[in-house]
Amino acid sequence: MRGDHGRALFTSDLSVNEFLLVREAGFRPVGLVLGSSVYHVGLQVGRWSKNMEMDKLTQAMYHARELAMTRMEAEAAELGADGIVGVRLEIEFKEYGNDIAEFIAVGTAVVAEAPPPTGTWRTHHGLPFTSDLSGQDFWTLVQAGYAPLGLVMGTCVYHIAHRGVLASMSTVGANVEIEQFTEALYDARELAMSRMQAEAEQVRAEGIVGVQLLSLPHRWGGHTTEFFAIGTAVRPLRADHTIAKPSLVLPLTDGRW
């Protein structure tokens, strides 16, 4: 889009501090990009007394997010962007249809002012990189000689078994671990994490930073939950890394203002 004087305008959901630090890192915002997918999530019923992954629901949640991400990346590619920063993934279940949800991916497309020592900021597949890091974290990452490769994610929708009446009564008033629940939550998180790590290995990342491991109940009742792992896969830009030393900052207010 161009303004009255013919200059290109950009839109961004970065805060002022994030915008300025992204500029300081050598990138220029070119527009807010968005991908969306309205998706009907299928039906699957878990067994009452068995811990188990709901693989049909897992596939739906992953596929819908992937569609939204792909469309956001396509918008950024049309703008000639080298990457997308501050990416957010959101889900909103709609009231006008059972099990219908909109999956949204949104972020700020940026263009680099200069190529990195490795030749390009884009991914091995020639696509703009994606990252959910804040502008501050993005600046710190680039200053230290690393670059984001892409958002990686893993998901697992898991049914946690119900306890029988006798088992429930046996622990009334007692301090005792419920191993059945512990194993279910551990297994579900492990599956989500391993799938995220597998995505990072596919893009030949050195590691993943800013990992979040979320528990999202959605609409499936108290015994079925989605465990969602997401983070930014990174690669080194050079062999030596100059890492800024943390500095002490004293606020001049007492927190009441």
UniProtKB/TrEMBL annotation:
Tell me which Pfam families the record gives.
Answer: YbjQ_1 (PF01906)
Which positions are tagged coiled coil?
none
The membrane-spanning stretches of this chain are: none
Q: Gene3D superfamilies under this entry?
A: Hypothetical protein apc22750. Chain B
Q: What PANTHER family does this protein's entry cite?
A: UPF0145 PROTEIN SCO3412, UPF0145 PROTEIN YBJQ
Q: What does the similarity note say?
A: Belongs to the UPF0145 family.
Q: What is this protein called?
A: Heavy metal-binding domain-containing protein
Q: Which organism is it from?
A: Kineococcus endophyticus
